[in-house]
């Protein structure tokens, strides 16, 4: 039975793409369409070149390292417009199964969002999806100096939630995200939306449905050391 309770002193931080919304296939399609405007074909390796990375890194990967900051920002913004246009009519069904109910059960607890995603995408998904109220703090890739796999974003979320990083339970779907959470000292739940295995995760799940996740969460004891 779900009681929707973490032990006092514990908190959670969720990534967005691949955790809240199963959007990575759509990001691949959007990058493919956008790159074609410039005659760029990333081929079958496109997905691996973008998963878990911040947009400025992805733009440099596709368009070269010599772009100005303004050009990088313009490419990133234009691609994300394509992505949001594609996502808007299917947002509800693109949410990871059970995530809304999971957030509702834990609405009274310290929960933060930690994502490399662009701020416009964060606002779009949280507001259009009716999810913003469930997050006490939101930290995107532009609010930290170092993107994942650096631990900065998870250390920042834990700080804003007033919990120790070792008592923060991170939900991730990417290798770089797991690496960031592990480096921060957090406990990790891996979502198998992007990869079938996530080495380094303490628990792996397909989605937020079922009792396994809640049982594991209730068993987590805060480390006071």
Tell me the CATH superfamily of the largest domain.
Answer: HAD superfamily/HAD-like
Amino- and carboxy-terminal Cα gap: 31 Å
* Count of DSSP H/I helices: 10
Broad shape:
globular
Helix content: 40-55%
Q: Which CATH class of the largest domain is shown? A: Alpha Beta
Averaged pLDDT, please? 92
DSSP strand tally: 6
- Helices and strands, in order, run as EHHHHHHEHEHEHEEH
Estimated share of beta-strand residues: 5-15%
User: What is the makeup of the main sheet?
Assistant: 6 strands, parallel
Structural class: alpha/beta
CATH topology of the largest domain: Rossmann fold
What does this structure look like?
This protein is α/β, with parallel strands linked by helices. The protein folds into two domains: 11-22 and 95-218, 3-Layer(aba) Sandwich (Rossmann fold); 24-89, Orthogonal Bundle (DNA polymerase, domain 1), CATH 1.10.150. It contains ten helices and six strands; from the N terminus they run E-H-H-H-H-H-H-E-H-E-H-E-H-E-E-H. It has a six-stranded parallel sheet, with helices on both faces. Helix 3 (55-63) crosses helix 4 (69-87). The protein is globular and about 55 Å long. The model has no long low-confidence stretch (mean pLDDT 92).
């Amino acid at each position: 039975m779900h009681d929707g309770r973490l032990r006092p002193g514990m908190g959670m931080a969720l990534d967005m793409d691949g955790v809240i919304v199963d959007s990575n296939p759509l990001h691949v399609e959007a990058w493919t369409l956008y790159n074609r405007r410039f005659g760029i074909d990333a081929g079958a390796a496109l997905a691996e070149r973008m998963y878990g990375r911040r947009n400025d890194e992805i733009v440099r990967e596709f368009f070269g390292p010599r772009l100005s900051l303004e050009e990088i920002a313009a490419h990133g913004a234009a691609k994300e417009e394509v992505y949001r246009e594609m996502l808007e009519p299917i947002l509800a069904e693109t949410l990871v199964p059970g995530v809304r109910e999971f957030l509702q059960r834990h609405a009274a607890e310290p929960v933060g969002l930690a994502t490399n995603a662009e701020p416009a995408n964060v606002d779009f998904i949280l507001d259009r999806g009716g999810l913003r109220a469930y997050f006490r703090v939101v930290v995107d890739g532009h609010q930290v100096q170092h993107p994942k796999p650096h631990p900065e974003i998870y250390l920042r979320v834990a700080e804003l939630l007033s919990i120790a990083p070792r008592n923060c339970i991170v939900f991730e779907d990417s290798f770089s995200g797991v690496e960031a959470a592990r480096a921060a000292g957090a406990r990790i739940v891996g979502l198998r939306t992007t990869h079938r295995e996530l080495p380094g995760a303490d628990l792996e799940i397909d989605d937020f449905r079922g009792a396994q996740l809640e049982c594991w969460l209730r068993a987590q004891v805060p480390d006071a050391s």
